[in-house]
Amino acid sequence: MRKNLRRALAIGLVSTMTMGTVVGCSSNKGDDNGGTQANAENVQNKKEYNGIDVSEHVDLTMYLLGEKTPDFDEVYGEINKILEEKLNATVNVEFLSWGEHDTKYSLLFSSEEKFDLIFTASNWAHYEETVSLGGFQELTEDFIKQYAPGIWDAVPEVAWSQAKIDGKVYMVPNYQTEFDQDILAVRGDLLEKYNMDGISSWEELKEFYYKVAENEDGIYASNEGPWYRYFQSQGYSVTGGTPRGGELFLYNTQDPDDLEFQYILDWDGFTEYCKEAKKMADAGCWSPDVLNSTDERQVPFLNGKSATMTWNIGSCRTYAKEANAANPDWKATLVDPIEENTKKVKPYTGNGVAINVNSENKERAMMVLNEFYSNPDVYDLSMLGIEGKHWEAVGEDQYKELDESGFGVDQNCNWGWKNDNINRKEVIENPTTVDEEYEAMDKLWRENIKEEHPYDGFNFDATKVTTQVAAVEAAVGTYYNPLINGLVDDVDSSIEQLKKALENAGINQILDELNRQAEEYIAQR
Predict the structure, then answer these.
(1) Looking at residues 241-255, what average pLDDT do you find?
(2) Residues of 383-417 as b/e, b for ≥16 C-beta within 10 angstroms?
(3) Angle made by CA atoms 261, 267, 273, in degrees to the nearest 5
(4) What sign results for the dihedral spanned by CA atoms 291, 295, 297, 303?
């Protein structure tokens, strides 16, 4: 019976198709031309992006952090014209202010809001915690290659490796060579006075500090103890996400085969530094009131109360030039106190963009991000603003700023798609000696980038030891800060007090959890 039913259905289907054919043949010529014309219009209206059908228009929403500048909407109106033309999409941008993103970021995901793209970053902008909540879409290699080939070509393999959590990638990291080392802006007139060519080592740094303390009235050598300069000179770096900005647990960033964390109270180098810091403090190398100071780090240098200022290379350039403009006789200059070390690049995951797992247009969102990341026209707009109004092109890869207030260079959370391959450099008209020193140092560093250490992209998740971390942070303020600034009566006894306080706070539980996470991290790479 079932066989007969199937045969009857087949006969009925053939009959229906035959009738359709007959009806089609009996239709008039005008109807036939109309169908052909409709098909032609459909083909003509079909829109593709890298071979992918984008005929259906979509409006996307992207969240950025901070506060948008006055001309932001105008600039993004120009961006949307390009996105509309290229991939039949527009993007609406919402901002989470600096004051609210810590509380509101997770709410976007817990409420299952259907936005599309969002700025994120490892350690400071909710990457790890949002992944743990299941908030970000996994980005597979095939997905990236298909919908964002420009991104795939630009982002180095190490960046994708740093973005992995449990072996999977959930963000597009930025591609920017940003160095993770401070330098010094220094009074060049004082270097000349003491017959010093510069400061390129820990020993030369100490020499300069002591000479300033001995010979200069009313001028301190520094506005703080040089703890960072010391442990960096020994090849160590902080461990991201651990207490006190990573200073209590160091790793040997110069040796990628060394996977041991150095707890500073188990390291003879810490005791050595603290004893030297006490000698410096007693000699007057920095103010005895340093722990109570609320000055920003450039202030003592600019007002003539400090012979040096420690900061990143760009900030030191800015304030050295400012110091020389006001006091040309100071001859402020830039020095690298750990010149011989290869240079560590900050993790590429320090800025990035993720796709919301609840987005209804994940593929198109990836295409849009590809345009921000790899299309020079979109990139320049998001970075610099409107050409001719906010900036002026100089050659193929440089720019001159025209308007400092309307949009603002690098001020609108465009950092998630920074791309060194197409990023323009600002033209410095009438460069100063400091500008020339900066360019020479930057060039030297780029030629001397160190081999990646597995922990360069690692960040500790303190979720399981939050109580211990809070207790450790409290103990640090009481015992650690005076030690690293040499403001204690007896170094050995103060170190013992710090050690006991941290053990009581739960430092060993933190170290155990750190080692556990590090082992998992290495296994997943």
Answers:
(1) 94
(2) bbbbeeebbeeeeeeebeeeeeebbbbebbbbbbb
(3) 125
(4) negative
Q: What is the mean pLDDT of residues 23-35?
A: 45
Give residue 241's pLDDT: 86
- Give every CB contact of residue 84 below 8 A, 6+ residues apart in sequence: 90
* Domain 183-342+451-524, second-level architecture: 3-Layer(aba) Sandwich (3.40)
Tokens of 503: 């053990």
- CATH superfamily for domain 48-178+349-384: Periplasmic binding protein-like II (3.40.190.10)
The dihedral region occupied by 304, where left means phi > 0, alpha psi between -120 and 50, and beta the remainder, is left
Question: Is-same-fold flag (48-178+349-384; 183-342+451-524)?
Answer: yes
Q: Where are the domains of the chain?
A: 48-178+349-384, 183-342+451-524
The closest of 301, 316, 321, 327 to 441, measured between CA atoms, is 316
What pTM does this model have? 0.80
Q: Stretch 330-356: mean pLDDT, rounded?
A: 95
Which 3 state secondary structure label does DSSP give 485? coil
Rounded CA separation 381/1 (Å): 71
CA angle 405, 430, 193 (to 5 degrees): 110
489 vs 42, residue with greater confidence: 489
> How many beta carbons lie within 10 A of that of residue 482, not counting itself?
21
Structural contact between residues 418 and 317, judged by C-beta atoms closer than 8 angstroms: no
- Quick: pLDDT tens for 402-418: 987 799 899 899 999 99
**How confident is the model over 302-311, as a mean pLDDT?**
97
For residue 497, how many other CB atoms are within 10 A of its CB? 16
Count CB neighbours of 70 within 10 A: 11
Q: Are 109 and 347 in contact (CB under 8 A)?
A: no
User: What is the distance between the alpha carbons of residues 340 and 441, in angstroms, rounded to a whole number?
Assistant: 12
pLDDT grade for 37, boundaries at 50, 70 and 90 = low
Query: Tell me, what amino acid is at 307?
Result: A
CB 439 within 8 A of CB 170: no
Residue 352 clears pLDDT 90, i.e. is over it? yes
Sign of CA dihedral 380, 381, 386, 391: negative
Phi, psi (rounded to 5 degrees) for 389: -110, -50
Q: What is the pLDDT of residues 121-134, one digit of tens each?
A: 988 899 988 998 99
Cα distances (angstroms) measured from residue 315 to each of 41, 184, 321: 58, 10, 10
